[in-house]
């Protein structure tokens, strides 16, 4: 609410191609695989989805909101760039 949006629901899903999502109605969902990531990555992804409550895009304003909520944004993005593909594949049988 502090940002001007309200979270209606949070769900954890078996998403293998995205870390999270936010609907215009305020429903947030996250991949269960995030529990395997460092806490600062969880903070970043929560901030990312919450920022979509006020900006449903990835504009410069959106990224300013994310950075305000989560100072470790760049560190978390680097971690995901390095480890994200392996984490997405976790639990998928080939």
TrEMBL record:
Top-level division of the source organism's lineage: Bacteria
One Pfam family, short name: YgjP-like
InterPro entries recorded: UTP_pyrophosphatase-like, YgjP-like_metallopeptidase
CDD domains: M48_yhfN_like (cd07344)
Transmembrane portions of the chain: none
Domain YgjP-like metallopeptidase: 2-83
UniProt-listed PANTHER family: UNCHARACTERIZED PROTEIN YGJP (PTHR30399), UTP PYROPHOSPHATASE (PTHR30399:SF1)
Protein name per its UniProtKB record: M48 family metallopeptidase
Source species: Candidatus Afipia apatlaquensis
């Amino acid at each position: 609410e502090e940002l001007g949006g309200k979270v209606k629901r949070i769900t954890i899903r078996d998403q293998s191609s995205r870390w999270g999502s936010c609907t215009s109605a305020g429903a947030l969902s996250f991949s269960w695989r995030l529990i395997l990531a460092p806490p600062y990555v969880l903070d970043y992804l929560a901030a990312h989805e919450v920022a979509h409550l006020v900006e449903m895009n990835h504009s410069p304003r959106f990224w300013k909101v994310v950075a305000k909520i989560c100072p470790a944004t760049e560190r978390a993005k680097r971690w995901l760039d390095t480890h994200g593909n392996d984490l997405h594949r976790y639990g998928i049988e080939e």
